[in-house]
UniProtKB/TrEMBL annotation:
InterPro entries assigned to the protein according to its UniProt record, in alphabetical order: KOW, Rib_uL2_dom2, Ribosomal_eS4, Ribosomal_eS4_C, Ribosomal_eS4_central_region, Ribosomal_eS4_central_sf, Ribosomal_eS4_KOW, Ribosomal_eS4_N
Boundaries of every RNA-binding S4 domain copy: 82-146
Keywords carried by this UniProt record: Ribonucleoprotein, Ribosomal protein, RNA-binding, rRNA-binding
GO biological process: translation
Organism from which the protein derives: Zalophus californianus (California sealion)
GO annotation, cellular component aspect: cytosolic small ribosomal subunit
Gene3D superfamilies assigned: 2.30.30.30, 2.40.50.740, RNA-binding S4 domain (3.10.290.10)
Protein name per the record: 40S ribosomal protein S4, X isoform-like isoform X2
GO molecular function: rRNA binding; structural constituent of ribosome
Keyword rRNA-binding in annotation: yes
Length: 303
């Protein structure tokens, strides 16, 4: 039946239609069968990070490669951390390539918060203490007024502790109270006076709380997010907005006032006295004109 059939001078080809029907009845590839996807769907977490999509505060130029080091999973978020390879290679210039950073880390020279870290993409973050035993150097990751992690050197005495913001307090099994910090630490049986948004001082050797600062007006704080990232000032007021975001008003040492969300505030000292050493600039953001005047004054004094 299939083939060319002549009807009053016209030739009609039924071959294609017959093949389709035969394939449909046989369940073959030519039948009405749903086509399978050509490639497998992605499974699991992403393993790559394009250079142009990396956080701006890493300060990676986009013309020296396609990819950037993707931070490993850890205590700090991807866009709020600084991978170890960026700190050693791009900031300290202790290595030229990623292989050299790997050799440094695998010799167990690098410690973060007192623990040896050999992962070159380990996500170090705000308030973390980075120690290099070979050189005797200690650093604390703190934001500058432009929202970037500054290379802030500290003394060996200051490297023994860190400040942590309290994110959550809950009661665990057997009625034991627990406290969770901004760097994912869990502390059992904390002081009952410690509440959410307070700051605790942790001894890095023992992991225990040695002191704490209440979140209260008059205390010194640093902004860890938003448009005022890196600024330091004294808390002047807290606006409560049930169902929305609480707003905190801060005044810096120059008398400039600004406001930000409560979640962006990190208390770093009682009164005007900070519990940690501050980076250059002391967290005071200058205007463009003030930066220009300061630059010209420094140039004239050196000239």
């Amino acid at each position: 039946m299939c083939g060319d059939v002549a009807v009053t001078g016209f030739s009609i080809n039924f071959q294609g239609r017959c093949d389709f029907l035969v394939g449909a009845m046989a369940g073959g590839e030519t039948g009405n069968k749903r086509s399978e996807p050509s490639a497998a769907m992605p499974r699991g977490p992403k393993k790559h990070l394009k250079r142009v999509a990396a956080p701006k505060h890493w300060m990676l130029d986009k013309l020296t490669g396609v990819f950037a080091p993707r931070p490993s999973t850890g205590p700090h978020k991807l866009r709020e951390c600084l991978p170890l390879i960026i700190f050693l290679r791009n900031r300290l210039k202790y290595a030229l390539t990623g292989d050299e950073v790997k050799k440094i880390c695998m010799q167990r020279f690098i410690k973060i918060d007192g623990k040896v870290r050999t992962d070159i993409t380990y996500p170090a973050g705000f308030m973390d203490v980075i120690s290099i035993d070979k050189t005797g150097e200690n650093f604390r990751l703190i934001y500058d007024t432009k929202g970037r992690f500054a290379v802030h050197r500290i003394t060996p005495e200051e490297a023994k502790y860190k400040l942590c913001k309290v994110r959550k307090i809950f009661v665990g099994t057997k009625g034991i109270p627990h406290l969770v910090t901004h760097d994912a630490r869990t502390v059992r049986r904390p002081d009952p006076l410690i509440k959410v948004n307070d700051t605790i001082q942790i001894d890095l050797e023992t992991g225990k709380i040695t002191d704490f600062i209440k979140f209260d007006t008059g205390n010194l704080c640093m902004v860890t997010g938003g448009a005022n990232l890196g600024r330091i000032g004294v808390i002047t007021n807290r606006e409560r907005h049930p169902g929305s975001f609480d707003v905190v008003h801060v005044k810096d040492a120059n008398g400039n006032s600004f406001a930000t969300r409560l979640s962006n505030i990190f208390v770093i000292g009682k009164g005007n006295k900070p519990w940690i050493s501050l980076p250059r600039g002391k967290g005071i953001r200058l205007t463009i004109a003030e930066e220009r005047d300061k630059r010209l004054a420094a140039k004239q004094s050196s000239g």
